[in-house]
Amino acid sequence: MPALYIVATPIGNLEDITLRAIDTLRDVKLIAAEDTRTTRKLLAAYQIKTPVTSYHEHNKLRKLKYLIGRLEIEDVALVSDAGMPGISDPGYELIGAAVEHRISVVPIPGPSVIITALAVSGLPATTFSFLGFLPHKAGDRKRFLMSVAKERKTLVMFESPHRLATSLDEILNVLGDRKISVCRELTKLHEEVFRGRVSQAREHFKTPRGEFCIVIEGAAEKVQPAMTDKLRGKLRNLRRYGMSAKDAVSQVAAETGMSKKELYQTWIKIQE
Question: What's the pTM value of the predicted model, to 2 decimals?
């Protein structure tokens, strides 16, 4: 039965391809590639003669029917420029169409920029959130960053060189001067992994070149202040001065960060 093979390719160094990926690319009847020029360089390095057709953002709808037709009679491999297809590229639409047509989808795992950058970042990797590329428009970008500002998981995102400075500025303004790892050209000749604070990264990458993967520490967990005799005394004094429960609780909550619920419960006990 024909299958769509989702083949991971090197993110830079051509030697990072797996033996299974090489065998698969040789055995299928057609390779659908995000950029045929990039893919042909890889195929030439391993003497793979399989025909290649383009499948990218600008022709994905036009090519979808053609590729599904081929998949009904023969095996096809899907590759992106680098890493695992379907992650921040149009490959997911072909995968979805294959699933709808009940065509077998077979993963051939391998290199991943996301996992590689996370592993070398030095930041917690137990849980993380992948954000893809930040929105292009300034307002959308700010709103998006604000939506993840309280996320405690490590954040991973892609960025292009011409937008790196702008994105770092926005990250600094919205998320603060957190720990960050900026990975450039991973596994390639000019590989660089910068570790530091967002402000330091902004200063370091004055003329950025290459492709970037950014890893940012998650939001710090706020430590809830504990009720103390001093705070109880403050509430008693405010009550003695005739302040209402609502105003007293709001004032102390603003000053200390204590939850209003706990302060109000203490206020009630003081009255008793």
Answer: 0.78
* 62 phi, psi to nearest 5 deg: -70, -35
Q: Where are the domains of the chain?
A: 3-110, 114-216, 229-271
Class (C level, CATH) for 3-110 = alpha beta
Give the residue from 45, 8, 41, 14 showing the smallest Cα distance to 187. 14
- Write b or e for each residue in 6-44: b if 16 or more Cβ atoms lie within 10 A of its Cβ, otherwise e: bbbbbbbeeebbbeebbebbeebebbbbbbbeebeebbe
- 30, 50 contact by CB (below 8 A): yes
Residue 32 and residue 41: Cα distance in Å, rounded?
14
Other Cβ atoms closer than 10 A to 149: 12
CATH class of 114-216: alpha beta
Burial (CB count within 10 angstroms: exposed 0-12, middle 13-18, buried 19+), residue 151: middle
pLDDT in tens, the chain (272 residues): 899 999 999 999 999 999 999 999 999 999 999 999 999 999 999 999 999 999 998 898 889 999 999 999 999 999 999 999 988 788 889 999 999 999 999 999 999 999 999 999 999 999 999 999 999 999 999 999 999 999 999 999 999 999 999 999 999 999 999 999 999 999 999 999 999 999 999 999 989 999 999 999 999 876 667 788 888 888 888 888 878 888 888 888 888 778 888 888 888 888 76
Contact 214, 194 (CB under 8 A): no
